[in-house]
UniProtKB/TrEMBL annotation:
The modification 4-aspartylphosphate is found at D73. Residues 23-165 form the Response regulatory domain. Keywords: Hydrolase, Phosphoprotein. This is SpoIIE family protein phosphatase. The keyword Phosphoprotein applies. Residues 440-461 have a biased composition (Low complexity). It holds the Pfam family SpoIIE. Residues 434-469 are annotated as: Disordered. Gene3D superfamilies: 3.40.50.2300, PPM-type phosphatase domain (3.60.40.10). It comes from the Bacteria.
Length: 469
């Protein structure tokens, strides 16, 4: 079957908006279809270079990365060896997401199926008889970009069809990559959300709130980590930490340290013994000896009036007692960050909390923001204390307090913070505890949905909302 050759003509540069040459591989076995000119100028101005293959074996040798489009004659016979190879490849290769030919059309489209399998990134034009429109349409459904009838070809139709097929294939590939990227992003988001902590506070009288915002663009998880659990003796343990760096490796290490901390805490470890074991975990799991992590842990007694504090190179928590301004807890007895000194020790300091209080634990991302667009001055711990006291005077507590504090830090910085930010707020309110006790002591109907006495605590143990994009 002779393929018409686009006529040569001089084309001004203004008429060649794309300017890029196209290489077309013609696969047909009609000797009369030989094209002798190695490089042709299409009617629409795009230069077309023609290669001709007489069978699929020769086409496989000529099919290189610089081929833009394949012009395939559907009447080309499929050699038995090629058909057998195609069947074997289809059985062992990764799943092909292209549609299968309709029943009864598989043999007629065998040559197209083979070409699509060996050239998944190339545009494909098929040639068919004019009276077989159903076969032509089926070829497009299976994966070809367009079809042409043998009896209606001329230079302009051919050149236009080649350009259309190439652009449509590019668009299809771009859409496929975009879809895959979206699915991958969704899967990563589900994975990262699953790695965020779910505080275990069932049975505790303490309130809990948290905010988390990773510094990495489009990420849900950063190098900051935190967790809160209540052990069977009634003690509430809370932890917040920061792995140096902002990449996915640091985020993964933060998750490992958080899970290790929870397991060690539930196993009964506390204070220096727990932090020494966590340091061993970090030393084994980090990618480089330069990686370290800061950590702050508190263990609050069952009566909620006192706590033990351990600092490993981490900023001291902020304590607000009823009727007093908020202030930083002592940090002079703190130890070094995990991963810096092989035989370091972390003393545990006893802290009196009182009857009514709020304890805010945070990472340095909250205090290292700027205090004005273009300013070099950092907010710092003193600025954070003043900001929190101002919000407390406005009557903000719990979730509202954290939301306002993080929003103000972001506003002072003049936009998004570059570092990860994690903030955790625990509190004890005697009046709230008394109200809960009275409501729990009232008799009421027993049902399958009201058998959990710790419903408020369970509600507070949900994953905290993410802050930021």
């Amino acid at each position: 079957m002779p393929v018409p050759v686009p006529q040569q003509r001089d084309v001004p540069a203004a008429e060649t908006p794309h300017g890029a040459d196209l290489t077309v591989l013609v696969i047909e076995d009609d000797p009369a279809g030989s094209i002798t000119g190695p490089e042709l100028s299409a009617a629409a101005g795009t230069r077309v270079r023609i290669r001709t293959a007489r069978n699929l074996t020769e086409a496989g040798r000529l099919l290189t990365d610089d081929v833009d489009c394949i012009l395939l004659d559907l009447a080309l016979p499929v050699p038995t060896t090629t058909a057998a190879t195609t069947a074997t490849t289809a059985a062992t290769a990764a799943p092909d997401h292209r549609p299968e030919p309709a029943p009864g059309r598989a043999d007629e489209l065998a040559v197209l199926t083979h070409v699509l399998r060996i050239a998944p990134l190339h545009a494909v034009l098929v040639l068919t008889a004019q009276d077989d429109t159903e076969l032509a349409a089926e070829a497009v459904r299976v994966g070809a970009q367009d079809y042409l009838f043998r009896g209606e070809l001329d230079a302009r139709v051919l050149s236009r069809a080649i350009r259309y097929a190439v652009e449509r294939k590019r668009a299809d590939l771009a859409q496929h990559q975009l879809t895959e990227s979206g699915l991958r992003a969704q899967e990563n988001a589900r994975l990262e959300r699953g790695l965020l902590p779910t505080p275990l506070l069932d049975g505790s009288d303490l309130s809990f709130a948290a905010r988390y915002r990773p510094g990495r663009s489009r990420a849900l998880l950063g190098g900051d980590f935190y967790d809160t659990v209540r052990t069977p003796d009634g003690t509430v343990h809370a932890m917040i930490g920061d792995v140096c760096g902002h990449g996915p490796d640091e985020a993964a290490l933060g998750v490992e340290l958080r899970i290790a901390w929870r397991a060690l805490t539930l196993a009964g470890l506390c204070g220096d013994q727990l932090l020494s074991t966590l340091q061993q975990v970090l030393e084994h799991e980090r990618q480089s000896e330069e990686i370290f992590a800061t950590l702050c842990t508190v263990d609050i007694a069952p009566d909620g009036r006192r706590a033990g504090l351990c600092l490993a190179g981490h900023p001291a928590p902020l304590l607000a007692r009823h009727g007093r301004p908020a202030g930083l807890l002592p940090y002079e007895d703190g130890g070094p960050a995990l991963g810096l000194l092989p035989r370091a020790r972390w003393p545990r300091r006893q802290v009196e909390l009182g009857a009514e209080w709020s304890l805010m634990m945070y990472t340095d991302g909250l205090i290292e923001g700027r205090v004005g667009a273009g300013s070099s001055q950092r907010l710092g711990q003193d600025g954070m204390v003043a900001m929190v006291n101002s919000r407390l005077e406005q009557g903000l507590v719990g979730e509202e307090l954290l939301e306002a504090a993080v929003a103000e830090v972001r506003e002072l910085n003049g936009g998004e913070l570059t570092d990860d930010v994690a903030v955790l707020l625990l509190g004890r309110d005697p009046e709230r505890i008394r109200r809960r006790g009275r409501s729990a002591s009232r008799p009421g109907p027993v049902s399958a949905t009201s058998t959990t006495a710790a419903a408020p605590a369970a509600a507070s143990a949900q994953r905290p909302p993410l802050y930021g994009p």
